[in-house]
Design goal:
This protein is α+β, with helices and mostly antiparallel strands. The chain is built from ten helices and ten strands. The structure holds L-homoserine (HSE).
Length: 293
């Protein structure tokens, strides 16, 4: 019998997008590649990443939620920095699920993948963007199960990320958000999120700019990433449409037009010199994929 062998490619993601805490995200063009092969012996090559190489590795845990990893060799290659707010854990979970699904022809739908991946991740936003690509708005379906609506990135919109060297623990960041928030903050975010989606769907970048404001998570997490918040606050002066903290941070996503992207990137590089890495990172419509080998 020919040994089965698959490659899975999953994009990074930026969650929250300002007002959409735990509800909105976008896929961005940095990738995790996972190869799985039936060799008869379990092994995991982390590709230089500082992650566990045993069964407790997140990729393997996700894989084993669908099928035993006995006899399977895993080979990871990832461009997504760990613990910076670019969805590295979501990409790992989605890669493990897609790998098991394709290797053993389980034929799960993307909707079923989203339910399983959200359970493993604890929230649906990053995993939804990693699965579907593009922009996603997450909600709850029957019995509270997560579901997501996706749409393509609008033409002309560009993302630039500022990636600080510091890591932020998502657990700590989530603990910084109280269970209840003032009504005024909730109203402000409902308004921003609606403007943002209207702007993205109609490619009206003025509306996008007005829709990036957040009154829920960024102000309450400011102490975890003070330098990142200075960049968010200065984004307009630096020529961007605005900026948001990517997921739980500390990465900043600066939003701009393709015409302005070069200037904004240069201004960010000058501002962040000696501290953070600045890179242009296009939004991508492509979600998790299993390309031919
Ligand atoms: N929505 C999540 C948060 C994303 O901000 O905590 C983190 O992965």
């Amino acid at each position: 019998m020919t040994a089965r062998h698959r490659l899975v490619r999953v994009p990074a993601s930026s969650a929250n997008l300002g007002p959409g805490y735990d509800a909105m995200a976008a896929a961005v063009s940095l990738y995790l590649d996972l190869e799985v092969e039936e060799t008869g012996e379990f092994s995991l090559d982390p590709g230089g990443l500082d992650v566990s190489t045993g069964r407790e590795n997140l990729v393997v845990r996700a894989f084993e939620s669908l099928h035993s990893a006995d006899g399977i060799a895993f080979r990871l290659r990832s461009e997504i920095p760990l613990a910076r707010g670019l969805g590295s854990s979501a990409a790992a979970i989605v890669a493990g699920l897609f790998a098991a699904d394709h290797l053993f022809e389980l034929a799960l739908t993307r909707e079923e993948m989203l339910v399983r991946a959200s359970e493993l991740e604890g929230h649906p936003d990053n995993v939804a963007a990693a699965i579907y690509g593009g922009f996603v708005v997450c909600g709850a379906g029957e019995g509270g199960a997560p579901l997501a609506a996706r749409f393509d990135p609008p033409d002309g919109l560009e993302g630039i990320v500022v990636i600080p060297p510091e890591e932020v623990s998502t657990k700590l960041a989530r603990e910084a958000i109280p269970a209840e928030i003032p009504l005024a903050d909730a109203v402000a975010n409902v308004s921003s999120a609606a403007l943002l989606v209207l702007g993205l769907r109609s490619a009206d970048l003025d509306l996008v700019s007005r829709g990036l404001a957040d009154a829920i998570h960024q102000p309450r997490r400011r102490g975890l990433y003070p330098r990142s918040m200075e960049i968010v606050d200065a984004a307009g002066e630096l020529g961007a449409l605005g900026a948001t903290i990517s997921g739980a941070g500390p990465t900043v996503l600066a939003w701009t037009t393709w015409q302005e992207a070069g200037n904004v990137a240069a201004a960010l590089e000058e501002r962040c010199a000696g501290w953070a890495e600045v890179r242009r990172l296009p939004f991508t419509p492509q979600g998790a994929d299993v390309p031919e080998l």
